[in-house]
Amino acid sequence: MNLTVYPQAPFAVDSGKLTFLQTNNPKFYSTIVLGCKNLDKIIISENDEILELSSHLAYLGNGIDNVDLITAFKTKLEIEVIENLTESERQRLFQLDREVKSIFLGAAYLEELPLAIDDEWNLKKMAKYCGINILTSSMDNPYDIIKVIIKLYHKFYPKKLMVLNGLFNYLNSSQINDLIQMIKALDLYVLILDFSADFRKELADKCRYYRVDSDFVRFNY
Fold it and tell me: Which InterPro entries match (predicted)?
């Protein structure tokens, strides 16, 4: 997969190998960040075919400031849970639904009012009632949040290019190494943007590393 920001040549992003794009050029950095965020003025392509940005790119920022990145998967998680139910589990939930509605209906008759209870059995409503969600309070540090977000995208959008930036304000070298290994194990497309002039030799040895300097000169490592 290639990401193009004119007038630069395409930046190759391989699955399973972290791609690191560093620059200390404010104009270039803002162009690529806003392009990924707004899905505008950049191009994603593969095998010379231009891909639709909304279907193939997900801008995640630093993955920490925006809790909606996790809560946005709530509905998908509910559907996943429902699809994994066995037939016996579905029958038991149907019986429980009848019992719960019978209790409420009995209480309604005590008031001698012409009330009715919806007799429809809806697994989606039952799952939503249970409040299935990711327990973010159990995440002790920013890296835990980033791992969960990446795993969610791997599960539901495995072929999307994930673009993150500003991670080095939150991760230590050990966590960065773990992130590189996780991307390899899950075979993901991940691009990290970094606004800095500091060459990171340890990343050049392990990642696809690009650098664009203040004069728009590009270096490939």
Answer: CRISPR-assoc_prot_Csn2-typ, Csn2_sf
